Amino acid sequence: MLEHHSNIVPWQMACEQTGAKLVVVPIEESGALDMVAYKSLLSDRTKIVSICHSSNVLGTITPIHEIVQLAHEKGIPVLIDGAQTAPHMKVDMQEIDCEFFVFSVHKMGGPAGVGVLYGKSDWLDKLPPQWGGEGMADQVSFSKTSYKSAPKKFEAGTPPFEEIVASGVLIDYVESLGMDKTEQYEEELMVYTEHRLAEIEEVKIYGAAPVKEPVISFDLKGMDLKELEKFLNDEYNIAVKAGELTAQPLMKHLGVKGLLRLAFCFFNTREEIDVFIEALEKFIELQHT
């Protein structure tokens, strides 16, 4: 129920191709994953578990160690969508022990169009290549082509070298800052902002899971969030996102048309949050006049 469209649509396409059924794990009122329901949904017919490490809307961090352990008890592989967590916390594949882990570099502040797929070698060896082209072929004839071993067999065509090199530099930089330090700092910014928002009567924050990434999504009673987004961008140069946040099923579950999301990073400051609160109060004042 927490998933971004990117972790819904591909599986629906797979279901259409194979006749498989997409089963959705519900969430609790706080926005936390319903782990009792998750455990009950696992069966001998479950082919794969694919779940976000954290929600791009509510900020909920899912208990992936327990998720993986319960799936592995039934021999089920697990894919983790780490697009939201890789920029904000350390992720250790040996510790998590999932079969697949994916994230996009632009969420970390890097070039667009570059992503990472981690996979255990035994599973990558089993999977057929998705695209054909130069670089992934081993022996080619007009009657048959054999493929290189993983990961080469998944790398058809010329990769975006410049973006990949830049992505490596970015990751080195983020690690040099110390992700333990940046994670703690971003959490402090989030908590400070939640306290400031709690003072504004018109604000309703969604998502109260006990463990969250640095994201706050809220509604503004009786007011147009897209107008607020435009006001913040145009008048104060504050970058926020409002709307369905690429999570339409979650919005329907929450009973809202959309939310406005604040996402924090290590380069943000308390002073910027104070400016945001000032701008938000100004917008509300204008709506009442």
Summarize the structure.
The protein is 38% helix and 15% strand. It contains 10 helices and 10 strands. It is globular.
Largest sheet: 4 strands, mixed
Count of individual domains: 2
Shape: globular
**Which radius of gyration do the C-alpha atoms yield?**
21 Å
Percent of residues in β-strands: 5-15%
Q: What name does CATH use for the topology of the largest domain?
A: Aspartate Aminotransferase, domain 2
Quaternary status: single chain
Count of DSSP-assigned helices: 10
Q: Helices and strands: which structural class?
A: alpha+beta
Q: At CATH's second level, what is the architecture of the largest domain?
A: 3-Layer(aba) Sandwich
Helix-strand pattern:
HHEHEHEEHEEHHEEHEHEH
Rounded to the nearest angstrom, the distance between the terminal CA atoms is: 39 Å
Average of the residue pLDDT scores: 95
CATH superfamily of the largest domain: Type I PLP-dependent aspartate aminotransferase-like (Major domain)
**What's the CATH class of the largest domain, please?**
Alpha Beta
Number of strands: 10
The low-pLDDT segments are none
Please estimate the helix content: 25-40%
Strand order of the largest sheet: 1-2-3-4
Task: Describe the protein's architecture and organization.
With 289 residues, this protein is of the alpha+beta class. It is built from 10 helices and 10 strands. The strands form 3 sheets. It has a 4-stranded mixed β-sheet. A 4-stranded antiparallel β-sheet has the order 7-8-10-9, covered by helices on one side. The protein has a two-stranded antiparallel sheet with strand order 5-6. Helix 7 packs parallel to helix 10 and helix 8 crosses helix 10. The protein is globular and about 75 Å long. The model has no long low-confidence stretch (mean pLDDT 95).
